[in-house]
């Protein structure tokens, strides 16, 4: 069933409202999460001389902005949650844009890489093709997109106060390919566990 504009506005407002309420707890609870495997997966595929200009899409409180900065890159954050954007600016010192994921305003051909860690699953399936093409357009030629999402069986809906769409590998590959990306690699996380204990699907893509 197609979501109406009012439905999309409600999804955005409710999900962002949840993150606004739990922002402090979220920052504390995720501060020590090790996503270095994901950061490395993005950076090693970017071609050309460093430093790279990286968009941390859905940057949250700014943990990974700090990581990219420590590695010598130019990181810009983007988040829809006002409190997260404020935290990210304060904690990282980076430029952070507060934008609704469904109403993006991104510069063309600007980024060497986009880091979308645990965020794109919040975008309803019907809106994903448009959003992915916007991300594609904001990458330089040959630029790289990293994404990690909770995997699923191509269902979507509410998980408490948050909306999510949960894709399997084949569906995710089709979405990214249709948006103009070429797959570089994919893997499941956490590493070293049986597949049924790896809820996260990570993938890396180049702008064709």
Automatic annotation (TrEMBL):
GO biological process: methylation
PANTHER family associated with the record: TRANS-ACONITATE 2-METHYLTRANSFERASE, TRANS-ACONITATE 2-METHYLTRANSFERASE-RELATED
Keyword vocabulary terms for this entry: Methyltransferase, Transferase
Protein name: Methyltransferase domain-containing protein
Limits of the Methyltransferase domain: 54-143
Matches recorded under Pfam families: Methyltransf_25
A GO molecular-function annotation: methyltransferase activity
Keyword Glycosyltransferase carried by entry: no
CDD domains: AdoMet_MTases (cd02440)
Organism name: Pseudomonas protegens (strain DSM 19095 / LMG 27888 / CFBP 6595 / CHA0)
């Amino acid at each position: 069933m197609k979501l109406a504009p009012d439905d999309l506005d409600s999804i955005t407002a409710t999900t962002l409202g949840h993150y606004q309420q739990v922002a402090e707890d979220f920052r504390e609870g995720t501060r020590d999460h090790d996503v270095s495997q994901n950061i490395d997966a993005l950076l090693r595929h970017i071609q050309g001389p460093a430093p790279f200009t990286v968009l941390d899409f859905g940057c949250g409180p700014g943990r990974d902005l700090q990581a990219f900065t420590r590695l010598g890159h130019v990181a810009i954050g983007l988040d829809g949650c006002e409190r997260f954007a404020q935290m990210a600016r304060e904690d990282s010192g980076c430029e952070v844009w507060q934008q609704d994921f469904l109403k993006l305003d991104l510069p063309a051909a600007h980024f060497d890489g986009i880091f979308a860690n645990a965020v794109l699953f919040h975008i309803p399936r019907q809106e994903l093709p448009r959003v992915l093409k916007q991300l594609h357009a904001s990458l330089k030629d040959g630029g790289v997109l990293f994404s990690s999402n909770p995997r699923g069986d191509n269902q979507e809906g509410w998980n408490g106060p948050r909306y999510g769409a949960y894709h399997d590998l084949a569906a995710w590959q089709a979405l990214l390919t249709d948006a103009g990306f070429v797959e570089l690699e994919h893997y499941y996380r956490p590493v070293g566990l049986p597949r049924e204990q790896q809820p996260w699907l990570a993938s890396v893509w180049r702008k064709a």
